[in-house]
Amino acid sequence: MTSRWFAIAFALCLLILGVLITCGFSALIRLIVDHQVALRQGGQSFGWWSKPPVEPIIRIFVYNVTNADEFLNNGSKPALDELGPYVYKETWEKVDIVENPNGTISFNQKKVYVFSEELSNGSEDDVVIVPNIPMLSATSQSKHAARFLRLAMASIMDILKIKPFVEVSVGQLLWGYEDPLLKLAKDVVPKEQKLPYEEFGLMYGKNSTSPDRVTIFSGIDDIRKYGIIDKYNGKSHLPHWLSEECNRLNGTDGSIFPPHITPNTTLYIYDKDLCRLLPLVYEKDVITRNDVKGMRFTPASNVFADVETNPDNMCFCPAGPPCAPNGLFNVSLCQYDSPILLSFPHFYQADQTLRLAVDGMSPPEKEKHEFFIDVQPDMGTSLRARARIQINLAVSQVIDIKQVANFPDIIFPILWFEEGIDGLPDEITDLMNVAATVPPKARIVLMIIFFALGGLLFVIAVFCLIRRSHRQSTLHLEGSNYLATAQIDLAKKKAKENKK
Ligand SMILES: *[C@@H]1O[C@H](CO)[C@@H](O)[C@H](O)[C@H]1NC(C)=O
Ligand SMILES: *[C@@H]1O[C@H](CO)[C@@H](O)[C@H](O)[C@H]1NC(C)=O
Ligand SMILES: *[C@@H]1O[C@H](CO)[C@@H](O)[C@H](O)[C@H]1NC(C)=O
Ligand SMILES: *[C@@H]1O[C@H](CO)[C@@H](O)[C@H](O)[C@H]1NC(C)=O
Ligand SMILES: *[C@@H]1O[C@H](CO)[C@@H](O)[C@H](O)[C@H]1NC(C)=O
Ligand SMILES: *[C@@H]1O[C@H](CO)[C@@H](O)[C@H](O)[C@H]1NC(C)=O
Ligand SMILES: *[C@@H]1O[C@H](CO)[C@@H](O)[C@H](O)[C@H]1NC(C)=O
Ligand SMILES: *[C@@H]1O[C@H](CO)[C@@H](O)[C@H](O)[C@H]1NC(C)=O
């Protein structure tokens, strides 16, 4: 009797569990994922984060100027020849990692670049002709200075034989060559305005441990801040721009993001050379290596738009108006006042006039020139990425300096690069596939098991109970008959005794 009631209780428990799984399983999985991805010293994700088991690659395309003399003397458009790719394999590592008690981690980023002969189309020793960036920066900056300063500058450049174009190897352009102007500046300029180096290279000093100390949230306290920068060199904001919002740097480095990403999520990445947060919005679903499903995020099409198109960008124009043309981002404040403007390669999503101002640049193509990151939405891990940026120099014509008197106002493309990863190692993608496919299946299987088993047990138990109570009531009737007959017998007996 009690065992049947027990069976019913058990069946009800199973049914309740089934309901709980239907409603709460996703939340449970979320909890487990959040616990697993958070950066705990000794944890698996901590290992992957601190020493990513990926092979990042940077491909660099250099615009070789093939008509420097005609451009300067005859006023022709610059003719550019896109060379490359020059490919470097990278190794990333975080060093000097310190876990802080407030749920943050501080570290320095170490990157090592090794030239890959077999992946490249050309060698590091290829000689190219490119604009003399230190010189053109100096002359463009002197535009608003006193005239005698410009004349003095012209004679110094005469003595030092500085020309508006330099002939350097690709390796020198990237990693540094001795520049007479920087050398001079280092000796002359007062200490506090000093440039930090006397060599010039677009990636100068990057093949090492970065001196920048980064503090990010580990996600242990609050998973919604997972991977987001708390402090960069002790500061939570940039000093350059006009509003708090534009000075924010609380994005991630692009390798991890707060998990549970939906198509409505905006991802933010921060890079020092980008000089701002880059917002990324959902573009489409993609399948990446080893069939891992991901979501592609790209910069919103108006990130680098001019202030007429996107008035929000007004805060990035402290000296303006006029502000940067459509499709360009002025990073001069982050580059020691060099007039460097960033864009996407081939002026993707910028005004066509910029591209048509030079010869030899093909129209932009989305597949080749778009900046994107494919992320695994549940865990917030980058699966594939192409960070594509073009570096341009904004040259101003300065009549008083004879070397550049014929150099017109122009946005001069120097090079573009794509840095990224193609896929994660199999051990991680396998795990992701398991994590993405098993929980939903497990949920259905568990639901079926609990509902079917619980339901079946319940029906059986109830059935047995009903049958038993039915049998009991017949028994009870027989019993009362027996009692009745017994009474009759007793009455008969009594009657007999009375007769006697
Ligand atoms: C770059 O252009 C210059 C001038 O036309 C040429 O001499 C040089 O060979 C070119 N470099 C390469 C690597 O093609
Ligand atoms: C420069 O322009 C002149 C006429 O404008 C032309 O005759 C000459 O061939 C040009 N020189 C070059 C090197 O293109
Ligand atoms: C967390 O602690 C680190 C190191 O003490 C500090 O630099 C950082 O500002 C703190 N962050 C927050 C959000 O309190
Ligand atoms: C970067 O540094 C490593 C050693 O730390 C060296 O092997 C490599 O050649 C360097 N790469 C470049 C491009 O200088
Ligand atoms: C390699 O570079 C040359 C020009 O320097 C170009 O013509 C050729 O198409 C490039 N090859 C590849 C595979 O990109
Ligand atoms: C960055 O910080 C601001 C407040 O300072 C906050 O509103 C915003 O949500 C943060 N962004 C991210 C991506 O955490
Ligand atoms: C995305 O936002 C739209 C409207 O803002 C909303 O209707 C939709 O439910 C959101 N989707 C998700 C997955 O949050
Ligand atoms: C870039 O910004 C600097 C500093 O704000 C400014 O002086 C310069 O004129 C700007 N350049 C362009 C092309 O907008």
UniProtKB/TrEMBL annotation:
InterPro entries: CD36_fam. It is found in: Cell membrane; Membrane, Caveola. One of its GO terms (molecular function) is scavenger receptor activity. GO terms for cellular component: caveola; cytoplasm. It holds the Pfam family CD36. The keyword Flavoprotein does not apply. Keywords: Cell membrane, Disulfide bond, Glycoprotein, Membrane, Receptor, Transmembrane, Transmembrane helix. It is a multi-pass membrane protein. The chain crosses the membrane at residues 444-466. Belongs to the CD36 family. This is Scavenger receptor class B member 1. It comes from Hermetia illucens.
